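User: ok so my PI wants both of these folded by tonight, can you help

Assistant: No problem, let's get them done. Here's the first:
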Amino acid sequence: MAATLRARSRDLVAASDPGLLRLTAGLRTVAAIALTLAVLGLLRADVSHLVGGAIAAMVATFAIREKERAQQAVTLALGLPVAFASLTLAAVLHSRVVGGDVFFVVLIFCAVYGRRYGDRGTALGLIGFQTYFLSLFVGATLSTLPQLYGVVGIAFAASALVRFVLVPETPEGILGRLRDAFRARLAQLVSAQLELLDAGPDDAETALEHLREGTARLHETAMMIQGRLEQGTADEAVARLVQRRIADAEIAAERLGLLLLTARSAERADTLTLHLPGAPVPPPGGRLPVGDEATAILRRDLEALRLLVLRPVSGGSGTGLAHVRNRLLGYRDEENLPKAPTAVQDVFRGIGEAARAVLGLRIALDGPQDESDDTPSTTRSREELDAEDLAIDAGEEEPEEEPTGLRRPTTRAAVQVAVGSSLAIVGGEFLSSQRWYWAVLTCWIVFINTASTGEILVKGYRRLLGTVLGVVAGLLLAGLVGHHTWTAFALVLLFVFAMFYTAPLSYTLMSFFVTAALGLLYTLLHTYSLSVLILRVEETALGAACGIITAAFVLPVHTDRRTNDLLGTVLDRLSDVTEAAVDQLSGGPAIDLLEMARDLDQALADLRAATQPLTHPVTPLRARRDTARYVVALLETCAYHARSLAATAELLPGNPSIAADPRLRRAGDRILRNIGAIAAHVADEHAEAEVETGPSIAALLESDRPGVSRYGRVTDRVLRHLQRLDEAVTGLARPLKVPVAAQVKKATK
């Protein structure tokens, strides 16, 4: 019983924090700060040095983002002299207001510009900026410089000890935990499908929302795994195998959800239902009444599928699980299908395909499995998987051409931050000659990981909201803690952990914990007062305003332009994947389709992030918000079907039971033309290209010769995805205001 509870708790944690990345980041930072404070406490350092050491340890820990341990060590070693140089210049310029301000602006420009040199450039720039900020916070002078050198050196040493000894992290370990997270989230998605199966009219909306959430989380984890495969696996062929099996499992699970939606509906469920928040539940059709025998079997098999995901077919319960696995795989060969409507039987077939994907995932992640209890259907699934594995061929990526000059994002951002910080310095000096740097810090932060005016506006708003709430918390905590140094530091550690754990989830929460921690630090420095915290809010508002004004008038990238550029990129990637998949399915040469599908997913993730200002709940432009959500949902639908086409196409080279169908090329031509027409209108609203409609995709495959089979095995599978892709692409025409060819409409009446 205890072991089961531990396993469930482990799966829950793995699913909520894939790879334990947030937990590790929080623990590592807190441990580095605690170790630094412990050493400085033994050395009887004063409170200002304790505060400086805590900040330096935090910076030295979170600034390093490289994945390889050797690269992390080099960056950390280079960061120490950078920190010393920043401290020295800050102390030298302490009494020179103009010179110090000018240098700070130059430092900010260099720190942001350094992002063009990758993770190391970003880390060194961040260390230089934050160390200068530290010197301003503790009031560094030439006389205190030797002690600060020692404090920063201890902080960096503590960070290195925690990173490489106490809380070690390797790419292989992260990838292993991400794999566990994928299994846990896959099991959660099956649970959501069970919830949808049992949902009545009153809770169907909630069940569907859980299904959407589970589908999105599974895709998120799949993307995280693909981003870690190169560093986490020594063999490129193994990385390609894991990538394929992850993609297979994701597609099979999403397809099972669609089949379940269709089975409980009066009509065919639209793929868009899984991707559009707020989309209504398909109308009930009475096909899965409570108490029906087929429904009971379906519930049992979904439970069995979830068990297969979480437990390997080995150990004491291996025989029973092997029997369950064999039964589910048998549905692929029409074995023991319950008597039920066709739509319900399709769900059982979908369970069989999902069980095959789980089997492939097990083999890829855990190695060869026990085959002693295999049935013929299980043996066939293994043979198909083995044939697919032999067909793996790693492809090479072609480097993309990068923009130059002010068109380069890092250069433009560096100029913008420098100008915004100059405004923040001037305005901050008017508010306070002692704490003007808070405005500069806010201006710096709102530009980090943002690329458009709208993104900066939303981030500035969230920063200000979190700061206001943090000030209120700071008021309460300062009164409770008083001047109890170690109690305050314990709370600071707690807030630092919460800050890092919540950072990827909510920027407002992160800002709240930062401000609450700073309130405690002010208390320790004996500079706490209500006026100080109010000034903190004022400086934050000023910094956010300076950032927004600069983003709007200095080399601006408006949200519309940014989203249009990214939308064009998504359409290009969608066209590339669709064309390559259809070509391979029609008998063309084999290429790296999964890598192309990954590029499509990444482009779509960038677009989804860029549309956040348009879809934010407080936006006054409700129609525009709904349009942006609808377009992104349609593109997610397109991406799902494109991934499915790519995954199916990759089965062809080594699978003797699947043959190419040359007619599919004709079916894909209209989709590609329509994607091109939409992309042309996104690039130029005056473009004359039109979207074509006409006969169904299946009708395009009608043979002119009598006696020729209309569908083959691969064709039947591909047609559904091509038809849905065609519908989704055509659906993009209305929200994007792309004209539809009138003559084609007449022809289809």
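One down. Here's the second:
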Amino acid sequence: MSLIYQIPRPALWWLLLAQAAVILPLMQYLPLWLLAVWALCVGWRIQVVRGVFDAPKVMVKVPLALCMVAALVLSYGKLFALEPLVALLLLAFLLKLLELQSQRDVLLLLLLGFFVASTQLLFSTSIIAFLYAIISFTFLMAAFMALHTATATHSFWHSLKTSSVITLQAIPLALVLFFIMPRIGSLWTVPLSDGSAKTGFSDSMEPGNISQLSKDYSPAFRVDFTDKKAPVQSSLYWRGLSLSSFDGRRWELPFQDRDDNIRYRRIAQEQKKLNYDWQVDFASYRRKDSSPYIDYQVMMEASFQPWLFALTTASVTAKDVLNTPDYLFLSKRPVSQRFLYQARSYPEFKRQSQSLGPSERYQNTLLPKGSNPRASALAQQWRSAGDSDRKVIANAMRLFQREFTYSLQDTLLSELNPVDDFLFSRKRGYCEHYASAFVVLMRAADIPARVVIGYQGGQWNDEEKYLLVSQADAHAWAEVWLPEQGWTRVDPTSAVAPERIELGFRDYIQQSSTSIEQNGFAELRQSPLLMQLQMQLDAINYSWQSWVLSYDQDQQMIFFQKVLGGQEHWRIVAALMGASTFMLALLALWLWWRARPEAPAAELVPWLELEKKLAAVGWNREPGETPQQFTLRIAGQRPDLEVLLERYTKMAYTLLYTPIGSDQHQQLLKDLAGLRNSIRV
């Protein structure tokens, strides 16, 4: 068996603990078979330490590494995306455990561990993820300390204590660098795989899509209203997309708008002309001082989709964001990281134009030929009775209110004519069922209509005064064209379950109602305590995101202006040097404080005072000389002091070595002080 490098046992255990801490948060994003690879590597290394196995040879390591890379490609279908690249880095971190031939290899493994531990922040930037990363770094530092510490003189936990102190000492410097160092964007951009971290819905809708989100309480975005007041739930319709193309089952964007890049370029070119009615009307309305508006800030989670969310008829302040003709917002690039934007909504705005273009009218009244014939016949019956557009709308709403149930159950509809199946057989469903059926009825009655998807409502956080909109708040409703007021929102869900709109989704399902139990919402209930804890945790995350993650270049410039009085380079350098000097001064003061001599015991003070008095005239106690020997030596030179020194020595010995009460102690100190004053040197 060949000689191999043996890692000190404490260093090995800390290294394995650090690897476990680094791997754990990544397993929710990476293949679980990586855990088996880690177990194999750990088992092999332990056997090497025990002297049972040799370190693997090159003929074993190379095929093993190639097989692992091939497994990654098979798992993801590609290698150049975020998850496979992180998995590749993690794989290197695991396999390196097999070839630790020197202390240099261990140091390289630990350095690689710091990079891998940082990758968890690519997937989550919450304060919990940040604190967990700090813990991972501390474990890695503990392994580093154990590698350089003699095991005979320090315990296993000494390495953790030392690494924790180093981490705490680094925090002030990290804070200074955070505020002062230039803020730059990501050094790289790696696309996520198709199945990860997307928003609650895509650019299409069919029965069952949105109801699947009802159990997902992860945040979609948070809204900070300028007035810090809880808004009325029924007014919170967060528009995301309007879908006008229908194939009998699925609602989609028009064919010409399905490519986001082409759509963005087309709208951008049209807006340069600034001659469209919707632009002119909206711009002139916003210039009126009397126009009521709502100001708010939206912190949107990464959706990896290009659309943003806002209330009705809003204007958004954000770079590379377009306002579309249907008052929606399209970003030039998908929202791949948390995105902050300002918005102002004008809830009372009405378009002045009273006509709808021929092509737009055709698009929003088109139905597939022969699909859902019973729904079409019902709408045409209403229309043939001479009913107006508003009367047809009222007929549909009364139908839903009278015969239908809001439910998560029985959401599967017929493939052939799903709207007919819903209207005349099932008569129960979720918001997308009602929105789809309503728009089909309107189009069959020759009323332009479209489906709008977004979010409705939200949970108000009373501690931090913001609105949390979760994926469970995803909602679908309809918009119809009325000549006297343009596109008008109509929500069929409000006819079936008005409490859903008035209370918001979470509060609605918390009601103790038999109908809720029977319609599939009971399992969505949460205890009040759990809901309160979730909101408190979200408030902490929101504060973290607002004050830390949103500290970009613009915020840094504002900080420099407020704190430093300007943005000039010399001010920044002076602030950095001043902060560094201050921290070094604090460190020096702390080191001095630790090295300062300890105050002598109260029993020694009388003798030390006598030594000080005698030293003033040249009598110093020699090393190893006892107090009694010292006083005898002085008495030999000054016989007139012999009695006083002998008495003082006996009293000092009594104070040091004889147990006495507190009253006697104080009296003895007083007598010693008087005797010391009587010694004339």
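Confidence is low (pLDDT under 50) at residues 186-198. Residues 206-538 form one domain. Good luck tonight!
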